[in-house]
Structure formats: structure tokens, C-alpha cells
Design goal:
The structure is a homodimer.
Chain A: E1 2-3, E2 9-14, H1 17-23, H2 36-49, E3 53-60, H3 68-87, E4 91-95, E5 119-126, H4 128-133, E6 150-154, E7 172-176, H5 185-197, E8 199-200
Parallel strand pairs in A: 2-3, 2-6, 3-5, 4-5, 6-7
Antiparallel strand pairs in A: 1-8
Helix pairs in contact in A: 2-3
Keywords (chains A, B): Transferase
GO biological process, one term (chains A, B): polyprenol biosynthetic process
GO molecular function (chains A, B): ditrans,polycis-polyprenyl diphosphate synthase [(2E,6E)-farnesyl diphosphate specific] activity
């Protein structure tokens, strides 16, 4: 059983924006804006480490059933984040159902990966059933997303919540209890340190 | 966000048999036999609590690439466990590829659920790709297995290792560091206590 060094593909579940906002006396939807900067810091950290690919849970089709102010807030936060990442020369791909009105039109061009540099997959209006339903026509809809080595989730939840089920099958799962807007680089340092200590068995 | 009481369906990943054996100076394959009794104790606990359904990771198609003595040992342990659970009046279903030579013929009749009582799904010669490939003909091959509320894994690993990816999408994941043959009822007590404290969001 080989010990690993750096993960080749990390998934991020930036959860806890609404609880963070509520804990500060803000309305829930105000939490999302505070998630953009941490995401850019994390992007730069991954890039400087030489991690080839990252996937980020933006929002799901289920999430869009939330009250409209929240929906507008996380939609807008995802668009801002995506545009900034594209501007910083990442190879951005948006993964999600672009046939729905809830898919931001600004992001349509990125349903196919654009750009060079670190691969960034942002899940926008994603749904695991939508993803797997692609198998009926040959392959999952997220087929251009590689297998995940590690998933890091903020906000204390110990579940995948429908995040890329196929790519997650052998991923090591690390949970940070702090809410996502309270992101600190140390969280990811600790996750990487922990990852290096795990055995890689891949079911063998 | 409602607090839950008892999970309706729990998945178990009884990992660590080989490491347990090695730690006692036994050969790796000797570990599996020591996993049968803990599995029966856990079965009785779940039944007495009134949990309607449990799923247990027996072995995968990947596992069968291990050395023959190991393969024979976990295969035989799974057959013994299944037969005993059936004798104890569970509603047993075996989930796995029965078209392969590595599927134990004794278990073939249980590919369709048999019996009444608590539902027990035992994964035998299972493979997540085999499972999902069923979608090409309409539905996943494990379609008779319901969604999981919680997964408990022994042996310290924080990954699903291909365990029922569709049913796991919203499952809370609890890890016990002890090896599976060192199972104690307290492990599951703690898991259930922890489960009750989690919010149930189901992506809403």
C-alpha cells in the first residue's frame, strides 16, 4: 500500500455560508458573497502547490428550491467566482444542467473546458441524477471530470450531498468543522497532511 | 432542519480484518473468520432496535484480485454469514454479479430478496461500475436497495471504496478507528448518538 504525496484532484464542498451569516446576525443569503474570496485564496494555494485539478461544489438543482434571495445570491456568487478564475488563466469547466433557466447564461460557454492551466471544475445547477442519467446515452455527463483523490468539506457535515458520486468512489474524505467563509489556509494544510498518511488501496 | 431519531437504513463497511490479523501475528486471510461473529452481534442489535434495513459490504470484484487464500477466506466468511442471517429469519438479499465464477453458487437464490423480517443486503462480488451499468437498461442493478441514512466504517478509512454510490449520496458517514474484528456494541451506540445530532437537509 503506497503512501501518497500530493493529490492529483481535490474536491471542495464549501458548506456553511448560511449558518455563518446567521451566526453574525446577517440574513442567510448574505453569506454567499463572503465565500468568494476564500475560494480564490484556495484556488491560488492549489495552483502554487501544483495540484492539477480541483472540483468545487457551487450549487445544485435541489438548492434552487430555496427562497429566491438565496438562489440569486449563490447564483451570483458562482458567476463572480467563475469569471475571476477564468480571468486568472485556469482551465475552467462548468458542470451542470445548462438546459434549465436556472443555469446562468454567462457560464454557458464554459460547459466545455476553456483555457489552459490548472483544471477547475465548478458544479453549477448540478444534480447527481442528471449526471448519472448520461449513462443511458453512453457515459456520465461529468465524464470530463477525473477521479477524485480527496474531498474536503467545510461546515462539519460528514456526507457527500450528491457531490460527483462516480468520481468520489475512492476519495478520502476530510471534514473541517468551521464554516466556509471562515476558511483559513491551515485547514487545507491539515487536510493535505492527513491525506499523506492515508493508505492508497483503491479496492485492491 | 429536522433532527432525526433512528436511521431507517444503515450501511456497514467492516474493514480492517487483514490488519487485525497481522497485528496478532496471524496470516492476513485468518482475519476474515473473526469478522463473522461481530457481524451477527451487530445484526441482532439492529434488529432489536427496529432498524428496518441494513447493507453490509462483503467483498468486491476488485477484492477478488487478492491472493487466493484471502479470496477463499472472505468468500467463505460471507457465505457463512449469509446462511446464518437467513436462518435467523432476516429478509436477505445478495447484491453482486452472479454471472461470475467468483459469485458463490450457494447464494444465487438470494439475488432476489427472500424471507421476511429485517432487510439485510449483503454485497458479494459487488462492483460499483457493474451496479451503475444497469442504468443503461433502465435502472441501477441495486435498485431494490433503498437510500442510506448512515454509513459506519471500521478500520479508520474515510472513504466509501465504491460502496453503493447512489444510495450513499446523502448518507452521514461515521468512522470507527478500531479494526472490524474488534467490534464492540459501543461503536454503534456512539454512531447512533452522533447520527441523532446531525441535521437532515437532503440538499434542500
Amino acid at each position: 500500500m503506497a503512501k501518497r504525496s500530493l493529490p492529483r484532484h481535490v474536491g471542495f464542498i464549501p458548506d456553511g455560508n448560511r449558518r455563518w451569516a446567521a451566526s453574525r446576525g446577517l440574513s442567510k443569503e448574505q453569506g454567499y458573497d463572503f465565500g468568494i474570496d476564500p475560494g480564490l485564496v484556495l484556488f491560488e494555494i492549489c495552483r502554487s502547490l501544483g495540484i492539477p485539478e480541483i472540483s468545487i461544489y457551487g450549487f445544485t438543482q435541489d438548492n434552487t428550491k430555496r427562497p429566491v434571495p438565496q438562489r440569486e445570491a449563490f447564483r451570483s456568487a458562482c458567476v463572480s467566482y467563475a469569471m475571476e478564475v477564468a480571468r486568472r488563466d485556469a482551465a475552467l469547466m462548468i458542470v451542470g444542467d445548462e438546459t434549465s433557466d436556472l443555469f446562468p447564461p454567462e457560464l454557458r460557454d464554459f460547459r466545455t473546458r476553456r483555457g489552459n492551466g490548472m483544471k477547475v471544475n465548478l458544479l453549477v445547477n448540478y444534480d447527481w441524477e442528471w449526471d448519472l442519467a448520461g449513462l443511458r446515452e453512453g457515459s456520465i455527463r461529468s465524464h470530463a471530470v477525473s477521479r477524485l483523490d480527496m474531498i474536503v468539506r467545510w461546515g462539519g457535515g460528514r456526507r457527500l450531498s450528491g457531490f460527483l458520486p462516480v468520481q468520489s468512489v475512492y476519495a478520502d474524505f476530510y471534514v473541517v468543522d468551521e464554516y466556509w467563509p471562515d476558511f483559513k489556509p491551515e485547514h487545507f494544510d491539515q487536510a493535505l497532511r492527513w491525506f499523506r498518511e492515508q493508505d492508497q488501496t483503491l479496492g485492491g
